[in-house]
């Protein structure tokens, strides 16, 4: 998907590397990145590997200003584990941040910290799990039963104002209309939104509506 999007938008991919889950030795990979000199890096690492990668990236003298690394699985909780000094300034992509400015999120964060401590942070995966329970409950109410097929049928069109904003279940594919957000990690460990899609995006899990993705769903 990344390569197809890049090719369709005039971007050149200078390198592509993969490592096993839990991998922690990134000096060779970091050297390859530095030598390639890309304008940016798209990071799909997960879990503890991000800790090692960003620490070794900083040790190599790579700054967020010179070579931003966009991550899609680093949220507020992961920032704490990586160490904010190692990752501040780098961008991330999610639908929600603790700093998301909605009345529902202000109440959500306040209740969360009251329950778990002022030093605890919320995150997109955490909020998404919270939302899922409420969306399921609304579908059950609408269906009048917990029977799976009946709940799935009733789910289409259900819309709720959640901490991230308005989310709506698409009856065709059971995915959510959600607002896309790009953020930058602040020196305090929280994430500041710098861009959003302006409105919830219709879910397209098989990329049928994107010309650059032709054929990907069949691969």
Structural class based on helices, strands and sheet pairing: alpha+beta
Shape: globular
Alpha-carbon Rg, integer: 19 Å
Global mean pLDDT: 96
Count of DSSP H/I helices: 8
In the sheet with the most strands, the strands line up as: 3-7-8
Low-confidence stretches: none
Helix content: 25-40%
* Percentage of residues in strands: 5-15%
Largest sheet: 3 strands, antiparallel
Distance separating the two termini: 11 Å
Tell me the total number of β-strands. 8
Q: H/E element string?
A: HHEHEHHEHHHEEEEE
Quaternary arrangement of the chains shown?
A: single chain
Question: How would you characterize the overall build of this protein?
Answer:
By secondary structure, this protein is an alpha+beta fold. Helix content is 37%, strand content 15%. It has helices at 2-8, 27-36, 49-59, 76-82, 84-87, 103-116, 124-143, 148-155, and strands spanning 41-43, 69-71, 91-94, 159-162, 165-169, 176-177, 181-185, 191-196. The strands form 3 sheets. The protein has a 3-stranded antiparallel beta sheet, with no helix packed on it. A 3-stranded antiparallel beta sheet has the order 4-5-6, with no helix packed on it. Strands 1-2 form a two-stranded parallel sheet. Strand 4 and strand 5 form a beta hairpin. Helix 7 (124-143) crosses helix 8 (148-155).
Could you give a short description of this structure?
It contains eight helices and eight strands. With 219 residues, the protein is α+β, with helices and mostly antiparallel strands. β5 and β6 (176-177) form a beta hairpin.
């Amino acid at each position: 998907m990344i390569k197809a999007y890049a090719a369709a938008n005039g971007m050149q991919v200078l390198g592509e590397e993969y490592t096993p889950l839990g991998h922690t030795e990134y000096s060779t990979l970091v050297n390859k990145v530095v030598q390639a000199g890309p304008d940016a890096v798209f990071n799909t690492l997960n879990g503890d590997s991000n800790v090692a990668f960003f620490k070794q990236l900083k040790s190599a003298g790579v700054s967020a200003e010179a070579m931003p690394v966009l991550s899609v699985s680093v949220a507020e909780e992961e920032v704490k584990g990586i160490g904010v000094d190692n990752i501040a300034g780098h961008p991330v992509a999610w639908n929600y941040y603790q700093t998301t400015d909605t009345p529902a999120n202000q109440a959500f964060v306040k209740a969360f910290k009251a329950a778990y401590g002022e030093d605890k942070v919320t995150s997109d995966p955490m909020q998404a799990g919270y939302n899922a329970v409420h969306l399921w409950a609304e579908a059950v109410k609408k269906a009048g039963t917990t029977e799976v097929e009946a709940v799935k049928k009733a789910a289409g069109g259900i819309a709720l104002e959640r901490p991230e904003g308005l989310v709506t279940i698409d009856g065709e594919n059971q995915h959510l209309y959600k607002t896309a957000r790009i953020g930058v990690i602040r020196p305090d460990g929280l994430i500041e939104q710098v861009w959003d899609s302006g409105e919830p995006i219709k879910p397209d899990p098989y990329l049928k509506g994107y010309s650059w993705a032709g054929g990907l769903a069949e691969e």
